[in-house]
């Protein structure tokens, strides 16, 4: 599997997990999970028939059509979620992800949600807290020259701290990402002249990531 993003998602999945892969695309994650005996079972789902057909073709190529069931579904709508305990949502925007998770009845048996959003990471963290899920782990990976936070939520009556929701978990493995954000913001700041609100947001974000770097490394990124 030639994807750092999907590989990290697989590392957040355990042997006892029964997984729904929402928006499975080419089903590469599902094939990897089954071939490596990582989880109990997995369902490959996509809203797009064309995308799912590509996934089905890949599944057949690996001779796993009896091990990986597939279904066309708008998110979790057509899925019997009571048969599963884990949901994976990867490669979508934050608003699409939250639309998929809006039906709480579909989440009754779902104890773990793994998310790799394309944007608005703080929105995802905040809304998952509201749904009763706690951000327990997070790994930022570089995949094809882009950074992606992979977030692991578990059902828990506990909320994350404001800084964790806004800027992610403080982890030594994510330092390259923090450094990237600080450098990027410093390059962006001079280009924003009239938008004071955006400028303040960038300054605040830079400040917090500098604090993260200093806490971990003992040094402030200049």
Structure notes:
The protein is of the alpha/beta class. The protein has two domains: 4-168, 3-Layer(aba) Sandwich (Rossmann fold), CATH 3.40.50; 174-217. Helix content is 40%, strand content 22%. The chain has eight helices and seven strands, in the order αβαβαββαβαββααα. The chain has helices spanning 4-11, 28-35, 49-61, 94-100, 121-130, 162-167, 175-188, 196-217; strands spanning 18-22, 41-46, 70-72, 86-92, 112-117, 133-143, 146-155. It has a seven-stranded mixed β-sheet with strand order 3-2-1-4-5-7-6, sandwiched between helices. Helix 2 (28-35) links the parallel strand 1 (18-22) and strand 2 (41-46). Helix 7 packs antiparallel against helix 8. The protein is elongated. The protein starts with a helix and ends in a 5-residue tail after the last helix.
């Amino acid at each position: 599997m030639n994807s750092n993003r999907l590989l990290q998602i697989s590392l957040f999945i355990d042997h006892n997990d029964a997984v729904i892969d929402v928006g499975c695309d080419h089903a590469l994650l599902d094939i990897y999970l089954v071939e490596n005996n990582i989880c109990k079972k997995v369902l490959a789902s996509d809203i797009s028939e064309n995308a799912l057909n590509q996934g089905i073709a890949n599944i057949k190529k690996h001779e796993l059509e009896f091990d990986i069931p597939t279904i066309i579904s708008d998110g979790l709508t057509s899925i019997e979620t009571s048969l599963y305990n884990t949901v994976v949502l990867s490669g979508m925007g934050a608003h699409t992800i939250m639309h998929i998770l809006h039906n709480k009845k579909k989440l009754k048996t779902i104890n773990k949600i793994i998310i790799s959003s394309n944007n608005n990471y703080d929105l995802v963290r905040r809304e998952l807290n509201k749904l009763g899920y706690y951000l327990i782990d997070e790994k930022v990976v570089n995949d094809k020259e882009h950074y992606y936070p992979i977030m692991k939520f578990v059902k828990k009556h506990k909320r994350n701290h404001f800084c964790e929701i806004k800027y992610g978990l403080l982890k030594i493995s994510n330092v390259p990402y923090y450094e990237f954000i600080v450098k990027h913001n410093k390059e962006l700041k001079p280009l924003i002249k009239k938008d004071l609100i955006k400028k303040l947001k960038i300054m605040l974000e830079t400040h917090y990531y500098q604090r993260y770097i200093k806490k971990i490394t003992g040094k402030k990124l200049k």
